[in-house]
Amino acid sequence: MELFLASLTQALDPVVLLLIVLATALGAIIGALPGFSSVMAISLLLPVVYPMDPLLGLILLGSIYMGAMYGDANAAILLNIPGTASALPTTFDGFPMTLQGRAYEALLAALCGSVFGGAFGVLVLMLSFSWLAKLSLLFGPQEYFWLTRLGLTTIAALSSDNVIKGLLGGGLGMCISLIGLDPYWGNPRLTFGQPSLVAGVNLIPALLGLFCVAQVFISLEDRSRYIATTYERRSSALKIIFQTMLRRWDVMLRSSFIGVFIGILPGAGGPIASTISYNETRRWDRQPERYGKGAVEGVFASEVANNSMVGGSLIPMMALGIPGNVNAAVILGALLSFGLKPGTDLMNQSSGIAYAFMAGLLVSSLVLAPLGYFVIIRLATLILKIPKSLLAPTILVFASVGAYSITNSLYAVVIMITFGVAGFFLRKVGIEAAPIGLGLILGPIAEREFTSSLLIAQANGSLLSIVWRPISAVLALLCLISILTPLWTARKNKKAAAAAASGALADGS
Amino acid sequence: MKNNLLRSLGVACLLVLMVSTNALAEYPERQITLIVPFGAGGGSDRVARTVDKFWTEQTGQSMSFQYKPGASGAIGTDAIARAPNDGYTIGIVNMPTMIIQPVSGAASFKLADFDFIGKVNSDPLVLMVSEDSPYQTLEDFISAARENPKTLTLAITGTLSSAHIVALKLTEDAAIDLTLVPTQGGANTVARTAGGHVSAGLIGLGLFTRQENGRALAVTGPDRSEFVPDLPTFREQGINIDLTASRVFVAPRGLPAEALDYLRTNLAKTAQSDAFQAAFRTIGQGPVWQSGAELEQEALAQESEISALLKKYQLIQ
Amino acid sequence: MDRKLLDVVLCGLLLAGLTGFLLNAVAIRPPAHVYPLTVIIITLLLTGVACIRGVRTLWRKRPAIPLVTPGSGRIIALVMVALIAYGALVSVHYVVVTFLFLVGLYQLLAEKRTITNLLVSIVVAAVVTAFIYFSFGSWLHVPLPGTS
Question: Could you tell me which residue, A56 or B296, shows the higher pLDDT?
C-alpha cells in the first residue's frame, strides 16, 4: 500500500501528469480516426520514447494504449465504423442510438464505461497480477476454442429476427478467413490460383469495407443532410448515465471482469472480450430484445470490457513476459530495451518501476474522464454537424488510405472496395455486416485452437478431451445455451405474434 | 503512363546533369532506405533500430525506415528483391524464414534475388518444458518419445518456421515421432508449454531468457549461448542442430561493387563495435557478425538441407 | 431490381462460390481438413435453406420491395463507380487523384451546385488531401502510391 501511494504521488508529478494527459489525448484521437490504429501510434512513438527516462517512456506508451481503446468508440457510435476490431460490439447499440438522436448519451456512456473499465482493469493488475497470471496458464487450446465459439454465438443472439441469415453471415466470414495458408501444413488453400490470395484476406481492409464503405452507401440512401436527423445535447444526459451505471452495477462489474479475464489470456484479445461481454450482458438482461436497437447497456458492455482488457493484457506481460496482444508486445519490447526484465524481477527491483507504471496507467484511465467530456466528445460530435455530402467522400478516402497503410499495397484497397460493394448488397438481403465481421475476426483463432486441440486429443488418444475438461465443459454448455435461447425466444415471439394477429383478426370481425 | 515517361525523362536529364557536374560524387549521395518486412515495434524493428543508431554514428547518416508487413515477412522480402539495385534500398530479413518461404512456395522471391550484406545477430532456439514436467534432460524427452510414438506433443511457433525446421530435424536425428502443434506466436508457445498443455515447446532463446516459466532442456547452435552457459546444446547431446534464427541485411541482386563494398564494410564496423554489442545484449539478442560472402554460402547450404527435410516429411512436393 | 430477386440471386452466387470452396477444400491434407470442411459444409447448408426460403418468397408474388429508397439508386451507383475508379487510378498520383475524387464527389452529393459550394468543396478537398499527405506520407512513413 505504501509502495502504491508512493508511486501514485510519482505519477502525479506535474510533468508526468502533463505527459499522461497528452499521450492519452493522442491515443484517443488516433483511436477515433478510422484507418489509424493504436499499434501504429505506439510504434511510432517508440523512437521518441527510447532516449527518455524508462518510467516516463512506459507511462507514455501505456497512456496511448489506454486512450486508443476509448477513442475507437467514437467512430463506432457516430459513424458505425469500429476504429478497431474491439469496438465492433459498440456499433451494435451505439449507432442505432445516434440514428435516434441519442448520440450524446451513447458517447457519454462509452466514456464513462471506458473510464470505469480502464480503472478497474488497472486496479486488478496492481492488486493481484502474479496469481492471475498463473491462472492464464490454465487455459489450453481447448478453452480458447470454446471462447471463440462463445463469441460467435453472439451472432445467433444478434439476428434473432432472422437466425438463418445471421448464421449464414457468420459462416461466410469464417469461410473467407479460410483463404490463405493453412495453419498446419503452411500450404496455400482456397486461393484459386491467385498469388495475391496466398497471404489471405487481410482483416482490417475487409472490416473497413464491410463497415465503412458499405455504411457510406447505406447512408446515401437517405437524402437527409446529416447522419442523424435529430441530435440534442441534453444537460441531464450525464445524470441519466450515472443513474444507469448505478442501477446496472451488475453490467458494469460483469463486463469489467470479463474484460480483465479475457485480456489475461494471451492471444485472445479485445474483440473476444467485448463480444463476449456484450453477449453475456444481453443474455442476463430481462428484456434481451432491446439490444441491437439502441440499448445503452450494450454500449457499456462493450466499452467497459475493452478498456478493462488493457490492464488485463498487461498482466501476463508483466508477470510472465508473455504479452496478451500486439500492444502489450510493443510495450514489452520497450520494457526490455530499458533493460527491465518482466517477472518477479520487475516487481522487486528498479525502485518499484512496475508500480509507478501501473499508477501512471491508473491516472491515465482517470484522466480520460475530463479529457473525453470536455474535449473528445465535443470534437467528435462536430461530425454530426458536417453535411453528409462532405462527410461521405472524406470517409471513403480515409478508409482507403487506412486499408492501404496496412501492407502499403493497393491490393488492400481492392479488398476493401470489394467487401464494401458486396457488403452493401448482402445487407440489402438481410445478411448484416456484424456477423460477417465476427466470423472474419474469430474464425482464424477458432481454427488454430481447434486444430491444436484436435492434435493434442489425437496424441492423447481421446477426442473427448476437447470438451471434457472442467473449464471447457462450462464454456461449451454456455455456447449451447447461447444458441438455443434465441431460437426459443424467436419461437415464443412468433407464437405470441400469431396469437396477437388472430386476436386482432377476431377483434376486427 | 505518359506521366511516368515524362518523369523518368526528367530524372534522366537531371542524372546526366549531376553526373557531368559532379563526376566524382561517391556512394551514398543520399539517404538509404531500409525495408523492414514486419510491423513497426516488432522484433525485427527493434534490431533494425538499434543497428541504425550505431550505423548513424559510423557513417554519419541514418537510414529511412519503410515497413512492409504481411504474410510472415514474405511481402516485404519480395519488395526488397524487386527494389532498384542502386544501393539505395536495402532490407533486413529473417533467416531461415527467407530460405523456407521460397522453398515451400509461400513466396515468389528466390535466394538468387539478393546480394548479402551481413548477419548481425543470432538467436538460437531452446527446447522448453513446464516447471513440473517429468523430463529433466533431453535424453528423458527423447526416450519417452521413442517409447510412445506420436503421443508427445511439441508446440512450435508457426508453420514452416525456424521452430518447425528444428522440430523436423529433431524428429529425424533422434528417430522419434512427435505430434507437432503449431501456435500463432512465441508468446503463445510459452503459455501453452508453461501451462503443461503440450509436452514441450520450441522458442527463441531471447524469448526464453526474458520470462521465468519452465525449464530449458537444450539449445540449438554450434556452441553454448553466453546468456545461459549452463544449458547444454543439442549437439552435445548427440543431435546435430546448428540452426539459429538470425537477422540479415540484404540488398536486391546486382548492386554496384562500390555500393556493396561500402555497405559491407560499414555494417561490419558497426556490428563489431563494443557499444553496439552491449546495446544488443540489452535487448536480449546475441550479437554476431558474419559478412555477406560467407553468409551466402551458409544460406545456400541451408537451402538444400531444408528442402530435403521438407520433402522427407512431405511438407512440399 | 427487386430485393426479393436480389436475395435469390445472391444466395445462388453464394451457393456457387461455396461449392467451389468445398471442391477446393477437399484437397486439404488431414488433419488440417476437419475445421475448413465443417465450416464450409455448415455454411453451404445454411445458404441452401436461405435459397429455398428466397425462392418461396419470390413465388408468392408479394408486392415488390425496392432495392433502395426510390431516387437514391443513381447516386449510390455513381459513388460506387467513382470509388472503383479511384481504386484503379490512385496509383497514378495519390495527391492529384484523391483531390479530384473528393471535389467530384462533394459536388455530386451537394444539394445545390453553386459557386460557393464549389469553392467550399475545393478548399475542403485540399485540406483533407494535405492532411493525409502529411500525416500518412510524412509522419507515418507510408509511401503513398504515385508520390515517391
Answer: B296
